[in-house]
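Quick one, T. Sequence first:
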Amino acid sequence: MKIVSTLLSFAAGLALLAVPAPPANAQSYPSRPVLVGFPPGGGTDLLARLLAKKLSDTWGQPVLVDNRAGASATIASDMVAKAPADGYTISMGQLTPNAIAPALIAKMPYDAKRDLVPVVLVGSSPNVLVTQPGLGVASIPELVALAKSRPGKLTYASSGAGSLQHIAAELFRTTAGVEMVHVPYKGSSQALVDLMSGQVDLNFDSIPPVIQQVRAGKLRAVAVTAARRASAFPDLPVIAESPGATPVRPCATRSCTPVSPS
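Structure tokens:
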């Protein structure tokens, strides 16, 4: 069986992959790395490494995390889809390669429904809108007002075209009626470096990679994308609480255009 986890909500959910019984002739199962379709340092990677440690302790042998980044994580998912169905190929899944990419990319190298098997949800994390502190905004209305006063000047980062960060930012941009420039990166960690240095203005990232930077004052958290407030940021409002930023259904008023992964 080929195994891949999946995401069950608009939040950056992650799934732990239950491992099936090894083949009868396997003496040192597992002996192959867990694939993670994002560069080191992102939320998916951080959770994968925590799980790898626990699995190593349980199985009594190393479990390696093999970062195969690129193309909005579809490279890693394609490797999983095309691997031998021997019970060894497992992956940390995420919404982007398993749900968003099939909806946006005209020609996918794999069929997520046919070629990948979701096993169990590990957890989920809402995205949090974070800005570089120098932007000078502390709320959604302030951000919307600034963006409208500087149309096309504000920049937002993402971990790639078609990524969850990209979709969240575009949903916010179109709902709020503002113009911002998309700056795609190959991963969340690279985007955060430029965000903290002020090279880009904002990002809709998951909580794990940004929480320490927010607490250290290197980033400012503005709001979360969940339906209710996040336990990690109990005082932070959800975007839907802010006037003029209530989420709407994507592509409800215009046709969707397939995009190529970056």
